Amino acid sequence: MYRRSEAEMPGYAHELAAARAAGVCFNEKLIAIEVVREAERVTGVRVAAADQGKSVPGTERELPADLVVVAIGQGRFRALAAQFPGVVIDARGCIVIEPETGQTGHPKVYAGGDCANGGKEVVNAAADGRRAARAILAQLT
Predict the structure, then answer these.
(1) Which residues contact 62 (CB under 8 A, 6 or more apart)?
(2) Alpha-carbon distance 111 to 96, whole Å?
(3) Residues spanned by CATH 3.50.50.60 within the chain?
(4) pLDDT digits (tens, 9 = 90+) for 49-74
(5) Dihedral (CA of 61, 129, 17, 121) sign
(6) How confident is the model over 34-44, as a mean pLDDT?
(7) pLDDT by residue (tens digit) across 69-114?
(8) End-to-end CA gap in the chain
(9) Which terminus of the chain has a lower count of CB atoms within 10 Å, N or C?
(10) CA angle 55-59-60, nearest 5°?
């Protein structure tokens, strides 16, 4: 899901094509508002339509989901992280993770990049994402 159109996405065309080949479906012009849960289980994501990257009031709906992966850029997004029991924010405002996996204090929440390390190079964020992806795959299988 992306808050703007595909033409406005910062990714390269070959990256989008590879994602589609891997089975990714893109939802354009949507903004995530809330992760919907029943007890500890994710059941969906509450979204709103977006116009020029901003949510449009009155367009909210729920998309079913059993796994949510958030890729949010350079912000730390403490409020989003705080929605998950067990996720700890340190004194610097960073999400506390297990360095080998990116797993937080919540067994189904992983983090990496700037929100966990405070801001380093993109190569560090990519490595964090790769480590977390491997750990998530191991957890699911």
Answers:
(1) 36, 44, 45, 46, 47
(2) 8
(3) 1-68, 70-141
(4) 999 989 999 999 999 998 888 776 55
(5) positive
(6) 90
(7) 877 655 556 677 777 899 999 998 889 999 999 999 999 899 998 8
(8) 25
(9) C
(10) 85
The single-letter code of the amino acid at 59 is: T
State both tokens at 40: 């500890």
Q: Which residue has the tokens 């380093």?
A: 120
Beta bridge partners of 89: 95
The C-alpha atoms of residue 30 and residue 56 are separated, in whole angstroms, by 9
| Cβ pair 128, 112 in contact under 8 A | yes
Please give the pLDDT value at position 74: 53
When the candidates are 3.50.50.60, 3.40.50.12650, 1.10.101.10, 3.40.50.150, the CATH number that belongs to 70-141 is: 3.50.50.60
